[in-house]
Amino acid sequence: MDLGCEAGSTPDITAARLHVLPALYKAAADGLPTLADKGYIGAGIGIRVPVRRPKDRSEKALDIDTRTTNALIRHVRALGERTAAELRERWRASKRISLSSTRIGDIARAALVLNNHWR
Question: pTM for the complete prediction?
């Protein structure tokens, strides 16, 4: 998550608590959880993160259900990260958008449709 509006030394979780998490909590209350990496442990309701393995132990120290959940979270996040990277690189004009945030969403959806058609 690149919030881009805080000083470089601000941890992602701190910036997220200020700018993003309140909206994500509302989405979670409506049944739409958010997947995040381990840097967001403790972010709050609806933020799903992989479970950390015990210190000085292998991943196998976790039970099979937890390992499976971690793998699913990583896999789905990887799809989202890949899609975002493709949109950023293939549609370079999206890096220079200076419209309102509601219009940027429309442009991103259109680029995603074009991106899927391109494949």
Answer: 0.60
